[in-house]
Write a structure and sequence with these properties.
This protein is mostly helical. 70% of the residues lie in helices and 0% in strands. The termini are far apart.
Length: 158
Amino acid sequence: MPSEARRALAEEHRKERQALALTQQQERRAAGLDDPELAGAALIVQERLRQIDEEGYAAEHDQRVGSRDLIRAAEAYIASAQGYDREARYRWPWDPEAFKPSEDVIRNLVKAGALLAAAIDVCQAVAGAPAPRFDAYLAEPALTIEDAIETASDGGEM
């Protein structure tokens, strides 16, 4: 492809991306998501939509995996945001290769928030049923962040 044609195609793609960004900005503004006081909530909404659109993690998928695993996945990202990488990997409920924590604390918190939103959606989808009981989940033995700190300060392995 001649360089002129490549440049024209690149320019066309740039204009398309600008138009899309403008549309998304207008949609955020219309939804009230551009308010600086709601910036965190807007990031979570955007991540949740990305999970649905790009990863295919729509309601059917979320209901199949269940709120319990979605909550554990959120816990993993929260632990990672706090710097507890071993705890994070312990919490991750799925294939370890699918766990993609970021060096960016905010990015990890945004992913956790989107996973919690998905868990809430699963709970709400159970029409007429009481909210799921998590007492069995809370009773299972787990390495807590406090345990991890204590172990690390003793110089031991987790």
